[in-house]
Amino acid sequence: MTGSKRIYALDTNVLLHDPTSLFRFEEHDVFIPMTVLEELDEKKKGASEVSRNGRQVSRFLNELIELGKQHDLGEGLELSNPQGIKLKRGGSVGRLYFQHRTSSNGHTKADNQILSAVIELRDQNPDRAVILVTKDINLRIKASINGIVAEDYENDRALDDFSLLYTGSAELTEDFWDRHPEVQSWTERGRTFYKVNRHEEENWHPNECLFLPGENSVELRVLHIDDTSATLVLLDDHSHANHHVWGIGARNREQNFALNALMDPDVDFVTLLGNAGTGKTLLALAAGLAQVMDQQRYREIIMTRATVSVGEDIGFLPGTEEEKMTPWMGALTDNLEVLANPEDGGSWGRQATNDLLASRIKIRSLNFMRGRTFLSRYLIIDEAQNLTPKQMKTLITRAGPGTKIVCLGNVEQIDTPYLTETTSGLTYAVDRFKQWEHSAHITLRRGERSRLADFAAESL
Fold first, then answer.
1. Are residues 275 and 140 in the same domain?
2. CA-to-CA distance for 110 and 332, rounded, in angstroms?
3. Is 192 within a domain?
4. At a CB cut-off of 8 Å and minimum separation 6, what does 227 contact?
5. Between the N and C ends of the chain, which has fewer C-beta atoms within 10 Å?
6. How far from 289 is each of 44, 55, 198, 293, 356, CA to CA, in Å?
């Protein structure tokens, strides 16, 4: 191994996290210690996402070895891109090297064996930068103690800093109308539209909500956008009693933006981000019930969520798929109590309403989503911050004609190992969908649960 290119030694968890990571180091070389191959072998059995990824890595390695059969493995294998992997890079590719001789005995811990292999690699290549890539923080600490450069695998991060994530709304300057004297305005089917010429700094996205605060306050949404102009539509005011959705009114500006997006049939995909108590589930359910029961736009509401516990697991749960999901769906039942609260009719009326709503709301487990297609359904994915980008893709691609998908989540409450704010499937979806004209995103800011919950969220 010679030259100024870097050598990246990969830990097992990187390959299990993203099987295509082998091909994502551009022109640099990749080194796989023998211990990593042994750990991949242990992980390949089973039906979990990790096991599937383990088997995929083995297939990639096998393909590369088959392609390079005529060459000596000691000289490395060219990391030629297998079909179907979208890579952002130029033409040059690095080489893949395996550890040939294992100097350490098999009794030491796997992490220490990987570390000693990387130290040996560094000693053999004094003229090259050797970097250990691992998602294990403790191994990164051990590597640093031994003078090895160690990094986290960051190729699948949706963006560098979570604070840069698109929020879905923007404040307009006070002189907005003065700066757009050429505005055209018209009314169609009870909605007011404006067409304005875009200025250079107005880099809006489709369905972004714009607001002008102050006395002449106005709330608009970007409908169409091109290089020179933008068409804006005046939003419905859902805080007003005439525009309540299934008895629920918007309590703040962002909730109003969210209800407008949730009630718009042209928006197929909505993401709502927000801390605990900002009203994500309640708004999504109220809009779903209004469109399923009153407008009959969708056949039924399907609710699902990642089954990751906050504390210890409570073992196997009895019953059907729906009954097993019930403990995870406390959020749904709590919100239904608010939504199904008929003033008259007493306890009988309440029970009848609950039964009617339950017949239109189905609870489904994420584990059985592969291969399904949902036609004319309103699909709510709760706790979406616990999904990986791959799981998010699996779910969103279930949508058939006439289906709307709503993803809810709070990235401060990620319970899945190895997922962070910047690599969560929810962050990924928000970032990738922001340019699409049939999707909308809103970050909810203000908690509306109770003064106790708000104080706790800020102070604890």
1. no
2. 44
3. no
4. 198
5. C
6. 43, 43, 37, 6, 11
Inside any domain, residue 236: no
Taking only the tens place, the pLDDT of each residue in 27-49 is 899 999 999 999 999 988 887 77
Last residue of one domain, picked from the residues 151, 172, 200: 151
Same domain, 430 and 292: yes
How many Cβ atoms are within 10 Å of 79's Cβ, its own excluded? 21
Gap between the Cα atoms of 416 and 380, Å rounded: 20
Which residue did the predictor score with more confidence, 452 or 309? 452
Contact at 8 Å (CB) between 57 and 36? Answer: no
Confidence of residue 457 (pLDDT cuts 50, 70, 90): confident
**Quick one: how far is CA 82 from the chain centroid?**
26
Start-to-end C-alpha separation, the chain: 53
Same domain? For 258 and 381 the reply is yes
Residues 6-18: tens digit of each pLDDT: 999 999 999 988 8
The residue from 134, 151, 168 where one domain ends is: 151
Chain CA centroid to CA 286, Å: 23
Task: Note the pLDDT of residue 263.
Answer: 96
Q: Note the pTM of the prediction, 2 decimals.
A: 0.80
